[in-house]
């Protein structure tokens, strides 16, 4: 069992640390390959065939093909990489945040214009657990 | 002798670059942000540095996951704006300064900062957005730039106190360069923001203001802010604020804050901006 980390109790946050980076290497390299036109063309022509050229796990591949943005992060993806896959699908950073937070673009944008998500009640996992409980 | 006269802290939100490139800097959403930089452009025109030393982070553009240097110093003749997935920004190529870069690289390594040397590097919004915010849209950038890319994407980023110490070493390097040059140091990124997972959208204005106060008035203390505090209080991507400490370390202790601007939001992010002048070289 991996040792507990001091940031494990921050809610709704996947810290892209060395363990996550190691786990997500091939998933992230797939995502970043979409930065180039050649990569985007190849993925568009044959999504499953193209993604198979990156030796990631089946879970990672499934999450990428199904556009499960939070699951990709949990499986070692990093937002600066997954955002390239989002851009491929025509989703910008703010729309992506709307999806990941479950709020939808409109409500998310309205929250940001109103000053963003307050840190109050959002610093510790236990605050979220109490809210849900 | 080369001298550092001033420092600039500036967010590098990609949306601001898009606003400049699309010509929508005056609309209701972006207008208030660009108004906060009007002073800065005028200041820059008066200040006229001979060179900008620009601390930024690459967003998986020049470096994919195969290589992630912690401190990478640009030593190239020029730096082309990168294609980040939607075509390069329509901004001028950034000219470097090989002589000073080489001098700084050598000085830093002998000073125990084992940096990576970049003889070729494309630069993304992390570098070009602060240039646009401070210089507007000239045909050519008015001065050369030496970029320093800091690895803040993969945790842990270098510690704030390490960045602060690096800033001091950069200052020492610059001040031992024989050519007369007036240099402005940029620290970019921030402020509080989280781009990922369910807590995305976190903004902590109170913390951001305190961060700026400490940076200006008590950098020794501010540079000790722990990583977990950045993550918890300023969001998982807010940790890139450690880069502001490279800039602060390159300045004197005795400085004047000539401009501060803070605004929420730009896309997912709080925009923070400071202009700091070394009192020893102030004109007035």
What does this structure look like?
By secondary structure, chain A is mostly helical. Chain A contains 10 helices and no strands. Chain A is globular and about 45 Å long. The two termini of chain A are 27 Å apart. The relative contact order of chain A is 0.14. The model of chain A has no long low-confidence stretch (mean pLDDT 96). Chain B is of the alpha/beta class. Helix content of chain B is 35%, strand content 22%. In chain B, strands 6-3-7-2-8-1-10-9 form an 8-stranded mixed sheet, sandwiched between helices. In chain B, strands 4-5 form a two-stranded antiparallel ribbon. In chain B, a hairpin with a 2-residue loop joins strand 9 and strand 10. In chain B, helix 1 packs across helix 5. Chain B is globular, with a radius of gyration of 17 Å. Chain B starts with a strand and ends in a 6-residue tail after the last strand. The model of chain B has no long low-confidence stretch (mean pLDDT 97). At the A-B interface, helix 2, helix 7, helix 8 and helix 9 of A face helix 9 of B.
Shape of chain B: globular
Secondary structure class of chain A reads: mainly alpha
Q: In total, how many beta strands of chain A?
A: 0
How are helices and strands ordered from N to C of chain A?
A: HHHHHHHHHH
What is Rg of chain A? Answer: 16 Å
Give the biggest sheet of chain B: 8 strands, mixed
β content of chain A, as a range?
Answer: under 5%
**Distinct helical segment count of chain A:** 10
Radius of gyration of chain B: 17 Å
Residue stretches of chain A low in confidence (pLDDT < 50, at least 5 long) are none
For the residues shown, what is the average pLDDT of chain A? 96
The chain pair with the largest interface is: A-B, 46 and 42 residues
Helix share, percent of chain B: 25-40%
Through-space gap between termini of chain B: 21 Å
Number of strands of chain B: 10
Measured as a percent range, the helix fraction of chain A is: 55-70%
End-to-end separation of chain A in angstroms reads: 27 Å
Mean pLDDT of chain B: 97
Main β-sheet, spatial strand arrangement of chain B: 6-3-7-2-8-1-10-9
In N-to-C order, the SSE pattern of chain B is: EHHHEEEEHEHEHEHHHHEE
Strand-residue fraction of chain B? Answer: 15-25%
């Amino acid at each position: 069992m991996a040792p507990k980390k001091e940031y494990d109790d921050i809610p709704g946050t996947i810290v892209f640390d060395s363990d996550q980076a190691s786990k997500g290497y091939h998933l992230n390299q797939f995502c970043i390959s979409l930065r180039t036109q050649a990569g985007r063309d190849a993925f568009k022509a044959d999504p499953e065939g193209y993604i198979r050229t990156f030796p990631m796990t089946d879970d990672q591949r499934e999450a990428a093909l199904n556009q499960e943005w939070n699951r990709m992060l949990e499986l070692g993806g990093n937002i600066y990489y997954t955002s390239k896959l989002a851009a491929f699908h025509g989703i910008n950073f703010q729309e992506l945040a709307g999806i990941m937070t479950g709020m939808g673009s409109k409500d998310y944008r309205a929250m940001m214009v109103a000053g963003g998500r307050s840190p109050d009640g959002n610093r510790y996992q236990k605050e979220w657990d109490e809210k849900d409980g | 002798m080369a001298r550092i006269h001033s420092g600039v802290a500036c967010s590098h939100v990609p949306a601001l670059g898009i606003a400049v490139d699309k010509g929508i800097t005056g609309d209701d959403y972006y207008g208030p942000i660009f108004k906060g930089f009007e002073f800065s452009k005028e200041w820059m025109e008066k200040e006229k540095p001979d060179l900008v030393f620009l601390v930024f982070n690459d967003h998986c553009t020049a470096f994919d996951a195969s290589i992630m240097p912690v401190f990478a110093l640009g030593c190239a003749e020029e730096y082309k704006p990168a294609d980040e997935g939607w075509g390069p920004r329509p901004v001028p190529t950034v000219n470097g300064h090989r002589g000073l870069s080489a001098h700084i690289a050598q000085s830093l390594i002998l000073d125990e900062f084992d940096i990576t040397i970049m003889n070729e590097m494309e630069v993304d919004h992390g570098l070009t957005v602060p240039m646009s915010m401070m210089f507007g849209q000239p045909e050519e950038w008015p001065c050369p730039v030496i970029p320093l890319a800091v690895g803040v994407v993969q945790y842990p980023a270098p510690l704030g106190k390490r960045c602060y110490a690096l800033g001091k070493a950069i200052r020492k390097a610059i001040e031992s360069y024989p050519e007369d040059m007036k240099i402005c140091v940029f620290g970019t990124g921030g402020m509080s923001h989280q781009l990922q997972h369910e807590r995305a959208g976190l903004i902590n204005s109170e913390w951001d203001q305190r961060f700026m106060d400490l940076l200006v008035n008590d950098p020794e203390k501010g540079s000790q802010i722990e990583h977990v505090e950045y993550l918890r209080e300023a969001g998982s991507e807010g940790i890139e604020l450690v880069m502001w400490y490279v800039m602060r370390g390159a300045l004197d202790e005795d400085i004047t804050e000539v401009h501060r601007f803070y605004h929420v939001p730009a896309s997912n992010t709080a925009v923070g901006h400071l202009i700091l002048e070394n009192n020893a070289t102030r004109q007035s």
